[in-house]
Every structure is written in structure tokens, then in C-alpha cells.
Amino acid sequence: MGERTESNQTATAGRRTARGRPRDAERDRALLEATVQVLQENGYGGLTTAAVAKRAGVSTATLYRRWRSKEDLVVGTAVRWASDLGPQPDTGSLEGDLAALLRDKADTLEGPGGRLLHVLIGESAHNEALARVLDTAIIEPVRDRSATVVRRAVDRGDIPPLENPQVLADLVVGSMVSRLFLTPDAAHRSATDGPSSGEAAIRELLPFLLRALGAQRG
């Protein structure tokens, strides 16, 4: 019971607001960016709060006023960088809505949030708190957006009703992670004059997702 309580407290650490004097947003950002950099270089096992503080140019006391532990720091970083998938305006078509969703997810995965996810996927397999917060920060926003995309499409008559609209989120996240993280040529595509890895993935995935949802393309 004690372990579960501690785990739940850690999973919500990234959303807590520090008491006392107001937080310095620029200093917070520097610490979060430093966390991503140190994680990318050394992995979760090699990350220390001292290394993050030094990279950010602050004292460890400054870091500990914001996050109580290494795990709290990583959780806060995951929430900050990976949960930036906001509400989507109605584009008027399923194809437009899906393209916007895929583009937002590609932008996230190709930025700091993606680098963080890449490092933490393995660690989350045996760290329940990290696995929970990665699901909350990365998967849940896509589930919410996907449910909205499907509802609009059904209301417009673009597709038949789906038994589980949120399965679209699994297709979007799984496909984008596979294309951007696990496909050998994706890492090198950005060095060419062709489309970015994210844009290339969208071109490949969009027709497939439309067919999987039962849409008729004009």
C-alpha cells in the first residue's frame, strides 16, 4: 500500500506548483532542457540531479526547490515536453483532421518530447511510475484528440460508427513511433533534400488510416 501511495505521488509530481516565491519560468525551462540532454547522453541510470543542475547553470538547491528527487524531475520533464498536444480546430474533413493530428504528433516526437520518450521507453518497462506518467502525458492526449476526430467524422457521415474510437490513438502513436524511432532510414532522411521523417511518415500513414477507419477518399 505504501509503495502504491508513493508511486501515485510521483506520477503527479510534474503538475504540482511549488509553494513560496513565484517560480522562474526560464529557470524551469533550463532545468527541463538540461534533463533531456543528460538523459539522451547518459540514459536514466546515468542521470543525476547534480549533472542536470550543472548543465542548467543552477545550484542543486534550486533544482530541489522544484523537484524532490531524480524521479520527480524526470516525471516533470515528461509532462512538460510530451503533453503539448492541444485541442484541434475542426478542419471540416476526416482527412484534414487526421493529417493535423499526425503532424502534431510528429512535431512532438521529433522535438525534445520525442528524445525524452526514446530514452525512457526501456526504463518504463520496469518503473511503474514512469510508465504511468508516459501513458498520461503521451497516449492520453492522443486518445482524447482521436475520439474527437472520430466523433466529427461519424457526425459528418464520413465513416460508420466505431465500437472503440480510441483505437485510433494506438494506430497513430504506434505507427509514428515505429516510423520515427525504429525505421533505419528515418534517422537519416532529415539530412537529405526530401521531406522530413515526420512528413514522410504522414504521407505513408494517412491513406492507411483513412482506409482502416472505413473512409471513402474522393
TrEMBL record:
<keyword id="KW-0805">Transcription regulation</keyword>
<feature type="domain" description="HTH tetR-type">
    <location>
        <begin position="25"/>
        <end position="85"/>
    </location>
</feature>
<dbReference type="InterPro" id="IPR001647">
    <property type="entry name" value="HTH_TetR"/>
</dbReference>
<dbReference type="Pfam" id="PF00440">
    <property type="entry name" value="TetR_N"/>
</dbReference>
<dbReference type="Pfam" id="PF16859">
    <property type="entry name" value="TetR_C_11"/>
</dbReference>
<dbReference type="InterPro" id="IPR009057">
    <property type="entry name" value="Homeodomain-like_sf"/>
</dbReference>
<keyword id="KW-0804">Transcription</keyword>
<dbReference type="InterPro" id="IPR036271">
    <property type="entry name" value="Tet_transcr_reg_TetR-rel_C_sf"/>
</dbReference>
<dbReference type="InterPro" id="IPR011075">
    <property type="entry name" value="TetR_C"/>
</dbReference>
<dbReference type="InterPro" id="IPR050109">
    <property type="entry name" value="HTH-type_TetR-like_transc_reg"/>
</dbReference>
<keyword id="KW-0238">DNA-binding</keyword>
<dbReference type="InterPro" id="IPR023772">
    <property type="entry name" value="DNA-bd_HTH_TetR-type_CS"/>
</dbReference>
<feature type="DNA-binding region" description="H-T-H motif">
    <location>
        <begin position="48"/>
        <end position="67"/>
    </location>
</feature>
<feature type="region of interest" description="Disordered">
    <location>
        <begin position="1"/>
        <end position="26"/>
    </location>
</feature>
<protein>
    <submittedName>
        <fullName>TetR/AcrR family transcriptional regulator</fullName>
    </submittedName>
</protein>
